Amino acid sequence: MSKPTDLVQGTLDVLILKTIALQPIHGWAIAQRIRQISNDVLQVQQGSLYPALHRLEQQGWIRAEWGESENNRRAKYYALTKAGRNKLEKELASWERLSAAIGLVLQTP
Amino acid sequence: MRWSEKLVLRLRSLFRRDHVEQELEEEVRYHVERQIEVNVAAGMTPEEARHAALCALGGLEQIKEGCRDMRRVNWIENFVKDVRYALRTMSRSPAFTAVAVLSLVIGIGANAAIFSFANAILLKRLPLLDPQQLVIVRQSVSYPFFSQLEQRNQVPAGLAGRKAIELNVTAGDSTERMIGELVSGSYFRVLGVSAVLGRVITEEDDGAEGARPVCVISYDLWQDKLGGDPQVMNRAILLNARPFQIIGVAQRGFHGSACRAGPTFSFLPP
Predict the structure, then answer these.
(1) What residues of B are in contact with residue A71 (Cβ under 8 Å)?
(2) The domain containing residue A102 runs over which residues?
(3) B75 touches chain A (CB under 8 A)
(4) Which of A42, B20, B102, B147 has a beta carbon 3.0–4.6 Å from A38's, enabling a disulfide?
(5) Is residue A2 part of a domain?
(6) What is the pLDDT of residues A25-61, one digit of tens each?
(7) In CATH, what number is assigned to the domain containing residue A32?
(8) How far is A95 from chain B (nearest CA, A)?
(9) Please, which residues have CB within 8 angstroms of residue B266's CB and are 6 or more apart in sequence?
């Protein structure tokens, strides 16, 4: 297995939003889940995860609440707001357009 | 999220800073502890696990600082810190501060004084119809001489007489020493000054002897001493203890042709 890849620039926000959209989740689990779902290909830099979460919160796309974690400890859970859901949809559409365009270029014989 | 919720978030970061900081600390600590558990489960010793977890995070303080930067109120905190730092530095060298403050005070004061002087002399215009056409003759002449000049009518645009005098003005309840102007009936017409209330003095008022003395008061006098009373025309004011009928209030900003501030009024020679 090759080393986990750094994220494509600018995709951290949309990955976080998508992960949170499934259910409220805390920071550590976000990093784990992105890694698991991507079959260990995507490695979120832990150093940039928390500033990104705080930024998204300040922008009103996610909302933070304290809750019990799966091992009965207090953890900060992030949930998507309505504005965040709209933002996610926009980002997904834009990503699809972009990746399709890149695919077209790269697959040209 | 509505703007109100964002506002709450900002205010919270600003005024409940300790609380927010503690939450940040707790959030990051939770992350580290979870990572340690995972590392231990993978077979590391507790120390190794802790070291690896911190390494993966890349510096606790950097992360916290990164999170703080995301609060949109950082600039306020930084500004307050800067101000405090400036005050501390200034209080450490009081002599330097005193010199700096003093030179600023003198500089600003001198500029303000020069400007208000230059403004009155060079920039401010008399609030007249056509101030550039006005010629002021600074030679005092007797009233009969002026009347003759007026009758010969050799000045095509018009001729007006004025004399500034100081007198006791009793308006309302108070008596004050003020500068007024004795003016000829042509004065307001020649200068092109109108009245906001009532009428101005005209040639008709250059009356027969013993005619009822009338006066026009300045807008400021009307406002300050007579309370802007719209019925002011029915009132009389005392000039040097003699009653004068108020016939009008001059347009705002007109204080007589001497460009002086302060309540001035115009009236007929008694």
Answers:
(1) 37
(2) 12-107
(3) no
(4) A42
(5) no
(6) 888 889 889 888 888 888 888 788 888 999 899 888 9
(7) 1.10.10.10
(8) 24
(9) B162, B180, B181, B182, B183, B187, B188, B201, B215, B216, B250, B256
